[in-house]
Amino acid sequence: MNHKLITIDDIEVANHKSFVLFGGLNVLETRDLGLFVAEEFKNVCDKLDIPFVFKASFDKANRSSIDSFRGPGLEEGIRWLEDIKNQIEVPIITDVHEKSQAKPVSEVADILQLPAFLSRQTDLIEAMAQTKVPVNIKKAQFLAPQEMIHILKKFQNAGTDKLILCERGSSFGYNNLVVDMLGFSVMKDFGCPVMFDVTHSLQKPGARVNSSDGRRALVTNLAKAGLSQGLAGLFIEAHPSPDQALCDGPCALRLDCLHAFLEQMKAVDVLVKSQPKINTE
Q: Is there a catalytic annotation at residue 26?
């Protein structure tokens, strides 16, 4: 298989390379919290020699309730992300929700993220492609893995092939998500790096009165299962106090568990990628 490699600064993102971590906060709550969490992630990743890109959203436009916290917004959020990028010296990934956001966000972010619910929006895809910045494409909960080829073709038709695919679970009835492990191979066959958004795959969408619930206790189990498929990396959100997080706390890894968690993930990744492929056809 032809392995495509995407380069972010000096980080190589590819299914056959050591796994990369896209990690951080679900949404920017304060500038200081963003700086603190980014520094904690970077310190742990430096110790374990894991390539790291900091993730946080400046706006969560798809919250369950009108009363839910959305974030600081585009202008202030981009300033905070730029501060984090410069002070902690890390590349940045963040979501783009509207086509008008693509250009200003691309001036700071090293990777743009296409949200799952918006992954078929052609105008948004074209605006993101025109920035020439690499894009992480979240697979919508309502799409089969094989349908992602159509989104890749939209981006390629718009002028970019610097594309990463990201699994984040599939709708399974009401208020539940499951992850199809065979789907990783389907998406890898398209030739792009494939990431696994573990914490969002633990969601129970809309399962609370006005927000999503989650299964934080199962994050290690699910992440190990995903890395067993030989992936480019993991997408993980963590918080120093998940029960007080302003968005998706029930899914977030406790920040003080990050080192132990990533130590195990690296061991799994090294083991899986050291094994010869068995032809069972």
A: yes
Separation CA 123–CA 59 (nearest Å)? 19
Residue 281 covered by a domain: no
Dist CA 220 CA 98 (whole Å): 33
Whether residue 279 lies inside any domain: the answer is no
235-255 pLDDT per residue, tens? 999 999 888 777 667 778 999
Instruction: Please count the structural domains in the chain.
Output: 1
| pLDDT band (50, 70, 90) for residue 100 | very high
Q: Give buried/exposed letters for 245-272 (b at 16+ CB in 10 A, else e).
A: bbbbbbbbbebeebeebbeebbebbeee
Task: Measure the CA–CA gap between 83 and 94, rounded to whole angstroms.
Answer: 14
Give me the residue label for tokens 């609370």: 208
Among the listed residues 55, 60, 138, 154, the single catalytic one is 60
Q: Which CATH number is 171's domain given? A: 3.20.20.70
Asked, for residue 210, whether it belongs to a domain, the answer is yes
Angle between the 74-88 and 31-48 helix axes, to the nearest 10 degrees?
40
Residue 248 annotated among the catalytic residues of the structure: yes
Domain containing 18 equals 6-274
Pairing state of beta strands 194-197 and 6-8? unpaired
The model carries a pTM of 0.92
Catalytic residue among 59, 95, 197, 248: 248
Residue 74 domain flag = yes
- Each residue of 3-37: pLDDT tens digit? 789 999 999 999 999 999 999 998 999 999 999 99
